[in-house]
Automatic annotation (TrEMBL):
SMART domains referenced in this protein's UniProt entry, alphabetically: LytTR (SM00850), REC (SM00448)
Keyword list, A-Z: Phosphoprotein
Response regulatory domain span: 3-115
Cross-referenced SUPFAM superfamilies: CheY-like (SSF52172)
Entry-annotated residues carrying 4-aspartylphosphate: D55
Pfam families per UniProt: LytTR (PF04397), Response_reg (PF00072)
Signal peptide: none
Superkingdom field: Bacteria
Name of the protein described by the UniProt record: Two component transcriptional regulator, LytTR family
InterPro entries referenced in this protein's UniProt entry, alphabetically: CheY-like_superfamily, LytR-like, LytTR_DNA-bd_dom, Sig_transdc_resp-reg_receiver
PANTHER family with a match to the protein in the record: STAGE 0 SPORULATION PROTEIN A HOMOLOG, TRANSCRIPTIONAL REGULATOR-RELATED
Residue ranges annotated for the HTH LytTR-type domain, each copy included: 143-247
Record has Ribonucleoprotein as a keyword: no
């Protein structure tokens, strides 16, 4: 049996997930934990499971705080309502990231992915986990931004570009500009590379919002961009940019 732990502070959500996991006869839920404190204590006193399903935002902190305090070789499948924690999740032992409400087919896919990582009767250490996870590509589909005391979900396909200014990375939509918690380097790793391209040190652009492309004899490439007026492709990126346009 595959020993499994659920970390979820909302009791109805925890019960629902446990019912869904009961459909997998080789999974055994050995603990249902509802806080950072409870989880740290349980992991300190019990044999660690092979698989963890964990919400991210708990009543007394983020579940990342658990794994800052204890070391585990378990695979982690995160469950949450928002995408903004994707990057940090995949720096840990995360193999998947399920957005709530969790669909049965998504859960089944995550469980199958977990099983594909571990050959029968063969142990996998934490370094092996990290190498396996590196092969997985996660794509950011939506971003949570803060507007005063309010939160707003922005779909990445609505973003015309990301740009850095005064050490803050902003995302630009047709309506307005929003600050984000990402760096451009982090975004490069999780944006859809078919749509987004880093044209210079300051900008990542979405191909859907390019109006015109201007070239000159000195190999300079400039983009008429909506809603930005003009963006220049750095010379060392021109060839890659042209290849990306036709890929």
């Amino acid at each position: 049996m595959i020993k499994t732990v659920i970390i979820e502070d909302e009791k109805p959500a925890a019960r629902k997930l446990e019912r869904m996991l009961s459909l997998f006869p080789d999974l055994e839920v050995v603990a249902n934990l509802d806080s950072v404190e409870a989880a740290v204590q349980w992991f300190a006193e019990n044999e660690h499971p092979q698989l963890i399903f964990s919400d991210i935002v708990l009543g007394d902190g983020l579940s990342f705080d658990i794994f800052d305090k204890i070391s585990t070789k378990a695979f982690i499948i995160y469950t949450t309502a928002f995408d903004q924690y994707t990057l940090k999740a995949f720096k840990l032992n995360s193999i998947d990231y399920l957005l709530k409400p969790i669909m049965e087919e998504d859960l089944a896919g995550a469980v199958e992915k977990f099983k594909s990582f571990i050959p029968s009767d063969q142990a996998v250490n934490s370094q092996d986990i990290k190498q396996l996870i590196k092969k997985e590509k996660t794509i950011l589909s939506r971003i949570l931004v803060k507007i005063g005391y309010n939160l707003k979900i922005v779909q990445t396909h609505e973003v015309s570009c990301f740009f850095s200014e005064n050490k803050i990375v902003y995302l630009q939509t047709q309506e307005r500009t929003y600050p984000s918690d990402f760096t451009l380097d982090e975004l490069e790793d999780v944006l859809d590379e078919k749509k987004f391209f880093r044209v210079n040190r300051q900008f990542i652009i979405n191909s859907d919002y390019i109006k015109n492309i201007h070239t000159s004899p000195n190999y300079k490439v400039e983009l008429e961009f909506q809603p930005q007026e003009e963006i220049t492709v750095s010379r060392d990126r021109v060839k890659d940019f042209k290849d990306w346009l036709v890929s």
